[in-house]
Amino acid sequence: MNNIVAIVGRPNVGKSTFFNRLIQRREAIVDSVSGVTRDRNYGKSEWNGKEFSVIDTGGYIKGSDDIFEAEIRKQVELAIDEADVIVFVVDVEEGITPMDEEVAKLLRKITKPVLLAVNKVDNAMREKDAYEFYNLGLGEYFTIAGMNGSGTGELLDKLVEILPEVPSNEEEETLPRFCVVGRPNAGKSSFINALIGEDRYIVTDIAGTTRDAIDTRYTRFGFDFNLVDTAGIRRKAKVKEDLEFYSVMRSVRAIEHSDVCILMIDATRGFESQDQNIFWLAEKNRKGIVILVNKWDLIEKDTMSARDFEKKIRKEIEPFTDVPILFVSALTKQRLLKALEETVNVYENRKQRIATSKFNEHMLTIIENFPPPAIKGKYIKIKYCMQLPTPTPQFVFFANLPQYVKEPYKRFLENKIRENWNFEGVPIDIYIREK
Ligand code: GDP
Ligand code: GDP
Q: Coiled coil: which residue ranges (predicted)?
C-alpha cells in the first residue's frame, strides 16, 4: 500500500504541470502496456526508491476559471482527511492571493505534513520574490519551476523523508481483502450493514496498521475475508455533493489496499463517468473487480432488463469487459451472498498460477496456427511463454523480434488466455520480450 500525496492550490498555479512531472516516467510505462490513457489526475510516482500515489485535486474541476472559493476549500478539506502528505502549490508571479491565505489557514490547523511549493521560480530574481510566502505561516518553503523541473528534486527529497512508514506486504495477514467502492448514495453502507449488521460476535473491527484503513473481518456463511476501510465508509459524514473528486479521493486508499474491489452502481442512475473513473482506478491498480448494480428493487423490469443494463456497462468499460456484473438490492438483500461468492471467485482467479508446461502446450499451438503477422517481410517467432511469479497475473511471451508484436496481437493472446483459463474480473498484463 502506498502513501497518498495530494496536490492542492488555486487554479493556474501549476499543479497539473508539477503533477505530470511527478508521474511522467511511470505513466509512460503503464500506458504503453494498456494502450489507454485514463484518469490523468491520479498516478504513481517514485523517488529514492520510495513509491507513493499522487492526486492532483485541481484536475477534477472543470472550467477552472470561475470556480468558487468554497469549492477549493472543500477540496482542501477532503485532501486533508484522505491524504498522508499535502503539497500546497502557490505562484510566485501572482504573489499571495486571498485564496492562498484561505487555504493556508486550513493547513496551519492540521498535524499532517504540509509542503509549501512556490512555483514558477524560473530564475534567480524570483527566488527573492518568494520570500513573501513566509507570511503564509507554513514555515519553510521550496522554490520550484514545475515547467523545467528545477527545485523539484529538493522538494521530493523532503517529501519521501517525511512520508509515514508503510507496513511491508509480508507482515500483512493473508486473508483476502475486499473493498466496497462507488459514488455517494450508491448504497455502500447499506450493503455493508446488510452483510454484517451489528452482530458483535461475527464482526471484529481491527484497528488498521495505518491511520485510516480500518478493516472489518467477515466470517459468516463460510466466508473469511477482510472488508477494507469499512468503518470509514460507515462512519464518514455523508457528502451531499456528487463530485468526481470525492469518490476518487475516498476510494483510492481502499482500492490500493484491496485484492478485489466491489464497485457499487446505483441502478436508478446508470453507469456514469464517476463509476467509470472508479472502475479505472481499480483496473489501473490491477485489482480484481466485481460490479454490483444496486437498488435493483426500484427498477421496473419491463422498461429496463438486466441484459440491456449489462450490455451498456460492458460498453463503458471496454476493453476490459471480462468482469462479473450482478444485480442486487441492499434493501431486500437480494443476491448479496451471491455477490460475495463472486468476489471470492475473482480473488481466486487473480491468485491462480498456470503451470508453465500447460501454458506453453496450449498457447504455442494457438500461436502456431495464428502467428503474429509478418512485418517488412520478417517473420516473428514465439517459441516459449510463461506466467510470471507476480502478485497479479502477468504473462511473458519470448519472441525473436518483440518490437514487431503489436497491440492487436497482444489482445488476441489475452483473449485466448481468458478463453481457456478463468480470469473473470481480473486485469492481466501481456509482455513480449526478446528470447
Ligand atoms: P493548475 O491549474 O494549478 O493545474 O496549473 P497548470 O499546471 O495548468 O499551469 C498553469 C499555467 O502556469 C500554465 O500556463 C503553465 O504552463 C504555467 N506554469 C506551470 N509551471 C510553470 C513554471 O514553472 N514556470 C512558469 N513560468 N510557468 C509555469
Ligand atoms: P452510500 O453513500 O453509498 O453508503 O449509500 P447508502 O448506503 O447511504 O444509501 C443511500 C440511500 O439509498 C439510502 O437512502 C438507502 O436507504 C438507499 N438504498 C441503498 N441500497 C438500496 C437498495 O438496494 N434499494 C433501495 N430501494 N434503496 C437503497
A: 330-357
